[in-house]
Backbone:
C-alpha cells in the first residue's frame, strides 16, 4: 500500500506543475489575443499569488477539516475550474476571474504535500517528486506552443487539454482515498504519525521561531528567481531580441526541462550529499546561468543560460523543503512549512510582476540583472538560517512553548 501511495503522490506532483508554466510561456499570444499590454501578466500573477498565499496560510485549518487527501482532491478540482475558465475567457476580466480558483488550488496542495513528504520520505523522493512537477511544467509549454503555432489563440485549446489531464488525476486521487487511510506511518523511520506531536502555531507566533523570518525571506528570493525567469524569459526573447513568439515559448520549456532533469539527478546525489550542500551546488549553477544571460552578443546563448538556471533551481527548492523538519524539528514543521510556502508566493505578487513593469517601460533585457539581486539574497539567507537553527533548544526561546 505504501508503494502505491507513493506512485499516486508522484502523479499528483505532475498536476502541480501543469498550470504553473502555461501563462508565462503563452503570455505573448494571450496578450495579443485579448489585446492587452504585455505588462498585465503581472496582474494575473498577482491574483494567482494572492489566492495561493491565502490557501497556504489556511492549510493547517483545511487539513484539520478535510485531512491531507481531501485537501489534495479539492485543490486539483479548483485548478481544473481555473484552466477551463482560461479556455473560455474572451476578455481580460474573465481571464482574471479564472485565475482565482487556480491560485486557491495551488497553495494548499503545495504546502500539504511538501510537509507530508518532507516528514515521511528521504530527500531522494522529494527531489524526484519535484522532478515530476517539472514533467507537468514541461508538458504545458509544449502543448501550448504546438497549438499557438497553428492558431493565434491556440492557448485556449491547450488550457482545455490541461484541464482534462488534471481531471483524470483528480479521479485517480478520489479512487485512492482508501489507500491514504491505510498508510499512516513514517516510511523511513517506521515511526507512527501519532508519535509526532505537532506544535501548531498561529502566523505571528510562527514568525517568532528563531530563523523562520530569514527562511521566509530566502524562500521569497528563490521564488523571485524561478518565477521571474519562467514568466518573463519568453517576453525577453520576443520583445528584447525580436524573435518569434513560438521560439520564446519553446525556449522557456528548456528552463522547466532543466529543472526536471536536474531533480532526477539531484535525487540520486542526495543519497550521498546533505541538503545544505545540494542547495549550494544549485546556487552555483544558477549564478553561472545568470552571468551567461548577460552576454547579449548572441541570442543563442540565452537558452543555454536558461538550462543552467533550471538545473541550478532543481535542488534548491526540494532541498530547503526537505531540510525544514531537520532545521525546525518535525513538531514545528507543519507551521513553518505553511509560512514558508505562503511567504514564498508573495514574491509572485511583488518581484515577478514588478519586472513586468520594468521590462515594459525600460527593457526586458534587464532580466538577468534583476534576477541576480534576488539570487544574492537567497544565498545569504540560506547560510544565515543554518547558523540560527543549529541549536534546537533556542528555536522557541521567544515563545512560551515547551
Residues:
Amino acid at each position: 500500500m505504501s508503494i502505491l501511495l507513493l506512485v499516486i503522490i508522484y502523479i499528483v506532483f505532475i498536476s502541480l506543475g501543469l498550470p504553473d508554466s502555461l501563462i508565462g510561456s503563452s503570455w505573448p499570444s494571450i496578450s495579443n489575443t485579448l489585446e492587452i499590454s504585455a505588462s498585465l501578466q503581472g496582474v494575473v500573477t498577482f491574483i494567482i499569488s494572492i489566492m495561493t498565499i491565502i490557501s497556504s496560510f489556511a492549510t493547517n485549518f483545511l487539513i484539520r477539516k478535510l485531512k491531507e487527501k481531501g485537501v489534495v482532491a479539492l485543490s486539483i478540482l479548483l485548478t481544473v475550474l481555473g484552466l477551463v475558465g482560461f479556455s473560455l475567457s474572451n476578455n481580460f476580466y474573465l481571464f482574471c476571474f479564472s485565475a482565482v480558483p487556480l491560485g486557491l488550488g495551488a497553495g494548499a496542495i503545495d504546502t500539504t504535500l511538501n510537509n507530508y513528504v518532507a516528514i515521511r520520505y528521504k530527500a531522494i523522493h522529494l527531489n524526484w517528486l519535484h522532478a515530476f512537477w517539472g514533467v507537468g511544467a514541461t508538458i504545458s509549454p509544449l502543448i501550448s506552443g504546438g497549438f499557438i503555432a497553428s492558431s493565434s489563440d491556440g492557448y485556449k485549446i491547450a488550457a482545455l487539454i490541461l484541464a482534462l489531464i488534471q481531471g483524470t488525476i483528480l479521479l485517480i486521487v478520489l479512487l485512492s482515498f482508501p489507500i491514504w487511510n491505510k498508510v499512516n506511518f513514517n516510511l523511513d523511520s517506521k515511526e507512527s504519525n501519532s508519535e509526532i506531536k505537532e506544535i501548531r502555531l498561529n502566523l505571528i507566533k510562527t514568525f517568532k521561531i528563531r530563523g523562520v523570518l530569514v527562511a521566509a525571506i530566502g524562500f521569497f528570493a528563490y521564488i523571485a528567481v524561478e518565477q521571474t525567469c519562467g514568466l518573463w524569459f519568453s517576453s525577453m526573447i520576443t520583445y528584447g531580441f525580436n524573435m518569434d513568439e513560438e521560439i520564446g515559448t519553446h525556449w522557456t520549456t528548456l528552463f522547466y526541462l532543466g529543472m526536471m532533469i536536474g531533480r532526477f539527478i539531484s535525487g540520486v546525489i542526495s543519497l550521498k550529499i546533505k541538503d545544505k550542500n545540494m542547495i549550494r551546488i544549485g546556487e552555483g549553477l544558477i549564478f553561472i546561468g545568470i552571468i551567461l544571460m548577460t552576454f547579449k552578443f548572441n541570442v543563442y546563448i540565452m537558452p543555454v543560460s536558461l538550462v543552467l538556471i533550471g538545473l541550478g533551481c532543481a535542488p534548491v527548492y526540494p532541498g530547503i523543503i526537505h531540510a525544514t523538519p531537520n532545521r525546525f524539528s518535525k513538531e514545528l514543521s507543519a507551521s513553518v512549512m505553511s509560512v514558508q510556502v505562503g511567504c514564498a508566493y508573495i514574491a509572485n505578487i511583488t518581484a515577478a510582476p514588478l519586472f513586468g513593469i520594468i521590462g515594459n517601460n525600460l527593457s526586458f533585457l534587464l532580466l538577468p540583472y534583476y534576477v541576480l539581486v534576488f539570487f544574492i539574497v537567497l544565498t545569504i539567507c540560506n547560510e544565515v538560517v543554518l547558523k540560527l537553527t543549529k541549536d534546537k533548544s533556542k528555536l522557541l526561546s521567544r515563545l512560551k512553548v515547551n
Notes: Residues 7-179+196-394 form a domain with the Growth Hormone; Chain: A; fold (CATH 1.20.1250.20). The chain is about 80% helix and 0% strand. The first helix runs from residue 2 to 17.
